[in-house]
Amino acid sequence: MTIKITRNFEENLNVINAFWVQNGYPKAYDQLLDEIENTVLVHLERFPTLGRPFLDRRPDSAEAVAKREQLHEQLARINKSHDVREYVMADYLLLYAIIGKDIYLLSIRHHKQLSFDFMSIWT
Questions:
Q1: Residue 99 belongs to domain spanning
Q2: Residues paired with residue 105 on neighbouring β-strands, in sequence order
Q3: What is the CATH number of the domain that holds 97?
Q4: Which of 41, 66, 67, 107 is most buried by its number of CB atoms within 10 A?
């Protein structure tokens, strides 16, 4: 499996870095990068399906159902064989997709952030 970083994931990291710099604790960003490099990527390379299936969650609103269907359609256009998963970290939730033989890091959010922005992931 090859792990690829999407533009959206990079932008999420930039926002996280700016947050920690603004709050006077840039070391937290370095710790996050270390955790991604030394733990998350190592685990995903060995066990790509380690994260919990994201698309198996039951939507709890009509809007969530529509967004899930939209995400399925977008992924199907890319590749019929796809799987979107969540990797739970100490303070962050990482969203990734397995498409063919590649793992795409889609988004990373702090647990206190509300949701993933699917529209910006796929543009």
A1: 2-121
A2: 5, 96
A3: 3.30.2310.20
A4: 107
